[in-house]
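MOLECULE: protein
FOLLOWS: sequence and fold
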Amino acid sequence: MASSFVVGVKFREKVKELLDKESSVPTDLFEELEPILDGDGESSIRFKTVRKLNTYLQNHGHPVYLHELLEESVLYLPEYKKPPRNPELVARLEKIKAKLANDEYNRMTRNVNNQELSRHGTLADFGREVRSAKAAVLTVFNFLVTVAATFACAYIFSQYIFTETTARVISAVIAASVVGLAELYVLVRTMEGDLGEP
């Protein structure tokens, strides 16, 4: 916190003139001003001394005002010295920082499972996907086998009705198509049921 001014040349000159002219300057004020006036470099003057000088100038009716004296002066701001930190406080703060970092880490990783196979899911998710794919493959395989078996049965059975091969193939294709459509209808209804739709 500022408690003094660094005085300029104008301050020194004006105050010297005043002190040379005046003989009634109080001794305590003169003693406080004398080291400032004798110095050549930067000197500082305390606020208390400036107040005394201002009171003296006002009481004795001098034409010089304080703001004119301090025109080239600047506030002296001492360098801030940081007080040493309490070691107990530092240790406590480090402990709190570590706890907060650990809590943040736990919050970020609470959804992470150590059984994770890849970025896309856990082993349980992978197992469900395999079962789903397996069911789809078995359904397609079952459909193909049913249609092929129907075609084969219709072709073999049609030899008792038709003598020409073309007629036997056409009748087998018609039978396989009817069974295939029926199988597709059942498959679609089953999938709708699995998805929860009526």
About this structure: DSSP finds seven helices and five strands in the chain. Residues 147 and 181 are 9 Å apart (CA to CA). The chain has two domains: 4-76, 121-194. Residues 123-157 form the longest helix (35 residues).
